[in-house]
Here is the input.
Amino acid sequence: MLETSADKRLVIRMLELWRRARRADGLPHGSQLMPADAGADASQLFQIDVLSPTGARFIHIGSGLHLPDWPQKPAPLVVECPEDTVLSLASRHWREIVTRRVPVTRGGLSRHLGGLVLYRSIMMPLVDDDGRIATILGAANWRMVEEHPPTSVG
Amino acid sequence: MASRSYEIQRFSGGRWVLDSVSDDKDVAVAMARALMESVRAPAGVRVMSCQQNDDGTFSEFTVFRASPVDEHNAEAQSRRLKVEEEVRNAREERAKDRKNDLAGEPSSKRRRFQDVILAVQLAFGIGITLTAIQMLRIALR
Here is the structure.
């Protein structure tokens, strides 16, 4: 198992925050859980507006997830997020959260800005006044993994 | 290729309800444990390994389950194991004593008993001696 307990802790902490914000068995309202509520973890958070008529958009990207030279404009589309980044890995399956209406965590080995990383992410649904999933609050962290050059056989 | 995910489910209102999903078993179990330790802990939690096979069929099985009853059972089991260990140790101690007895070495229990017998004999001897002295004094008066 490559994942460190620190990777898991962010996911568990965010899930506990989300669970505390829920009303009985319902989903938490968007106003009940803001990125700022995560305290020290806020820098690793992002938020997606899934009801935007032009497509799902980032409405918040924490400083720990900022990418060099991106985004060029506010509220970028999720599909515009550069590939091979943890933010893209953590956010691209947002439709699954809307469909299943529960938090989903994903992780594993992948590439982030050219380097090999081990990441862990979570996305959690938040509803509007009509009970529709309006936004998704996500979190991700990672650590660099040493790359070994491929060894030739024979 | 078959895809596998882990569903964290909570027992609520007499049925199992999907709580969250993970792609990693260890993370899923940690999430289930965190749910059980939360303020609004459900009556039970379980983690189901769900796999969609290449032929389109699904297979699922439980990889973790916890409820207050399970926790009580685990506690009872641990208590039972402790008692069993104590009984085993006592049995071994007795067996050792028996072995020592057979080898001619008195056991600690037997040694204690012999000490008591010796003390009684001494007390009895002193008593008889004192009585004899007293009777002699009466006779010589």
